[in-house]
Amino acid sequence: MKLAIIGQGGHSKVIHDIVKAIKGIEIVGYFDDKYDQSYMHQGIQYGRVLSAKNMLDHIDDIKFVVAIGNNKVRKMIVESLNLLDPRYAVLIHPSAIISPSATIGYGSVVMANAVVNADAVIQKHTIINTGSVIEHDTKVGDFAHISPKATLTGNVTVEEGVHIGAGATIVPQISVGKWSTIGAGATVTKNIPNDCTAIGTPARIKVGKKLIGGGQVVK
Ligand SMILES: CC(=O)SCCNC(=O)CCNC(=O)[C@H](O)C(C)(C)COP(=O)(O)OP(=O)(O)OC[C@H]1O[C@@H](n2cnc3c(N)ncnc32)[C@H](O)[C@@H]1OP(=O)(O)O
C-alpha cells in the first residue's frame, strides 16, 4: 500500500512507527503546513496539507491518514480534503488485539497494545491510543480519541469528537456526549452530556472552577 501522512507533529511520529511496524506500506508523501512549498526528495513528496490531494493525479491506489491528535483539527482537515472514505487507511499496530467481530472505520489508527473486543464499533478517523481497552459492544464515534491506558468497559457509547484522557475508566452502559472531554484518570459513572469536561473519581462536570455532579455542586 502507498500511503501519504498528513500532519507532522508528535502524534504523527507514533503513526510513522506503526506504519514501519506493519510492513508492506510505502510512505510516498508527508504533508504539513510547515512546508512552504511542494517538493520531491528521494521519491517522497512533501507539501502543505491540502496539496496532499494532488497525489491522486499521480498514484491511483494511494491512501491517506490524517495524523493529527487534535480531534477538531483532524475533522476540519478531513472535511477540507473531501475524499471518499475508502481513500483513508486503517492502521493497526501488529501488537494490538482486535476481535474478528469488531469493526474499525476508515482513517482510524489503533496503537501498540490496544485491545478492541467483541462487537465493538470504532467509527472513522479515531485514535485508539497505546494500551487502551475498548470492551465488547462499545461504540466509539468519528474523530474521538481514546488516550493511552484508558478503559471503555462493555456497552459504552463515546460520541463524535470525544477525548477520553489517559488512564480514564468509563463504567458499563455509560455514554459520553459529542465533543466532551474526560480528564486523565477519571472514573465516569454517569452519562456525560455534549460539550463538557468531566474530571475525578467519580467524575464530576467542570464548570469554570466548580465541579458539578449528581445534581449538586461539589466544590
Ligand atoms: C500520547 C498522548 O499524550 S495522548 C494525550 C492524553 N492527554 C490527556 O490525557 C489529557 C487529558 N486532559 C486533562 O486531564 C486536562 O487536565 C483537563 C482537560 C481535564 C482539564 O484541562 P483544563 O480545563 O485546562 O484545566 P486546568 O489545567 O486549568 O485545571 C483546572 C483544575 O482542575 C484540576 N485538574 C485538571 N485535570 C485534572 C484531572 N485529569 N483530574 C483531576 N483534576 C484535574 C487542576 O489541578 C486544577 O485544579 P485547581 O483549580 O485546584 O488548581
Helix and strand topology:
Elements lengths: L1 E5 L3 H13 L3 E6 L7 E3 L2 E4 L15 E4 L4 H11 L9 E2 L4 E2 L4 E2 L4 E2 L4 E2 L4 E2 L4 E2 L4 E2 L4 E2 L4 E2 L4 E2 L4 E2 L4 E2 L4 E2 L4 E2 L4 E2 L4 E2 L8 E3 L4 E4 L2 E4 L2 E2 L2
Parallel strand pairs: 1-2, 1-5, 2-4, 6-9, 7-10, 8-11, 9-12, 10-13, 11-14, 12-15, 13-16, 14-17, 15-18, 16-19, 17-20, 18-21, 19-22, 21-23
Antiparallel strand pairs: 3-4, 23-24, 24-25, 25-26
The chain binds acetyl coenzyme *A.
Organism: Niallia oryzisoli
InterPro entries: AcTrfase_PglD-like, Hexapep, Hexapep_transf_CS, PglD_N, Trans_hexapeptide_repeat, Trimer_LpxA-like_sf
Keywords: Repeat, Transferase
Descriptive keywords:
219 residues; UDP N-Acetylglucosamine Acyltransferase, domain 1; 2 domains; ten-stranded mixed beta sheet; six-stranded parallel beta sheet; 2 helices; 26 strands; 11% helix; binds acetyl coenzyme *A; Trans_hexapeptide_repeat; PglD_N; repeat
Describe the structure.
Helix content is 11%, strand content 32%. The strands form 4 sheets. The chain has a 10-stranded mixed sheet, with helices on one face. With 219 residues, it is mostly beta strands. The chain has 2 helices and 26 strands. The protein has 2 domains: 2-87, Rossmann fold, CATH 3.40.50; 91-199, Hexapeptide repeat proteins (UDP N-Acetylglucosamine Acyltransferase, domain 1), CATH 2.160.10.10. It is globular, with a radius of gyration of 18 Å. It binds acetyl coenzyme *A. Acetyl coenzyme *A binds at residues 129, 147-148, 165-166, 181, 183-185, 197, 199-200, 209. Pfam families: Hexapep (PF00132), PglD_N (PF17836). InterPro entries: AcTrfase_PglD-like, Hexapep, Hexapep_transf_CS, PglD_N, Trans_hexapeptide_repeat, Trimer_LpxA-like_sf.
